[in-house]
Amino acid sequence: MHKKEWFAEWFDTPYYHILYKNRDVIEAKLFIKSLLNELNLPKASSVLDLACGKGRHSVTLNEFGYRVHGVDLSSQSIAHAKKFANEQLSFAVQDMRVPIEDMKFDAIFNLFTSFGYFSSKLENEKVCHAMAKMLQPGGRLVIDFMNTSKVVQNLVPKEIKNVQGIEFNIKREYSGTHIIKYIDFNDQGKQFAFREQVQAVDLNLFSELLEPYFVVDAVFGSFELEEYIPLDSERLIIIATRK
Q1: In whole angstroms, how far apart are CA 129 and each of 26, 30, 39, 132, 134?
Q2: Which of 11, 106, 166, 242 could potentially form a cystine with 135 if both were Cys, beta carbons 3.0 to 4.6 Å apart?
Q3: Taking the CA of residue 120 as centre, how many other CA atoms within 13 Å lie in the half-sphere pointing to its CB?
Q4: Which residues, including other chains, have CB under 8 Å from residue 225's CB and lie 6 or more apart?
Q5: Residue ranges covered by each domain of the chain
Q6: Cα 145 from Cα 111, distance rounded (Å)
Q7: The 3-state secondary structure of the chain, one letter per residue
């Protein structure tokens, strides 16, 4: 049997959402508001939330008056997100490397480090090609990624997190190309082991990946859209326009 890719397995478990349950909805709404002020998207624009998870950003974008389609590879996350669906907000299971047929968008949001899950640069190129194909000419792209320069420099090798009675033992390493997180825990007498593996994509590599299809308009280093400082900023946020 073909083994699932790590993200298809880990993101589709309830434990992923338990470990990261502290994600701040208020912070997410403030971030979306700042992005929309920067983008100045006309109301009723069509927006794709690419790798939307359980849909928290999709819901917020819809509340601001946009037609939103959220997609994610995790069927469990999409099943949850569909509880919030309405005439202007829809969700579907979709691989981000594959363009959605017969759908074009005015903007694509790829948020909360939902890029670089793959083993090769070619897979990243597929994602960029898919995003370009789904965007209208002049459409806007937002990528919110971790600042790998800072993460690698300050990598915490070991950590224990207790969440909802589960002790998550976390180990991290940098392979030279990927930041890898090993997650081990026991629940109800059963042992589990998962892995997260994200390519350490920096601004230079993003610029190279986006160049065939996009013009980079702005780069920010925080959810408040502060200046990007390579070894200091918490985030790497890129705003670009489809050529």
Answers
A1: 32, 29, 22, 5, 9
A2: 242
A3: 5
A4: 34, 35, 38, 237
A5: 6-146+201-242, 151-196
A6: 7
A7: CCCCCHHHHHCCCHHHHHHCCCCCHHHHHHHHHHHHHHHCCCCCCEEEEECCCCCHHHHHHHHCCCEEEEEECCHHHHHHHHHHCECCEEEEECCCCCCCCCCCEEEEEECCCCCCCCCCHHHHHHHHHHHHHHEEEEEEEEEEEECHHHHHHCCCCEEEEEECCEEEEEEEEECCCEEEEEEEEEECCEEEEEEEEEECCCHHHHHHHHCCCEEEEEEECCCCCCECCCCCCCEEEEEEEEC
Structure-token match 């912070």, residue found: 27
pLDDT in tens, 166-180: 999 999 999 999 999
**39 neighbors 64 (Cβ within 8 angstroms):** no
How far apart CA 105 and CA 131 sit, in angstroms, is: 9
> From CA 174, how far away is CA 71, in angstroms rounded?
29
pTM beyond 0.85: yes
Query: 35 is written with which tokens?
Result: 């992005």
Distance CA 12, CA 32 (A): 25
Q: Which fold does the domain 6-146+201-242 belong to in CATH?
A: Rossmann fold (3.40.50)
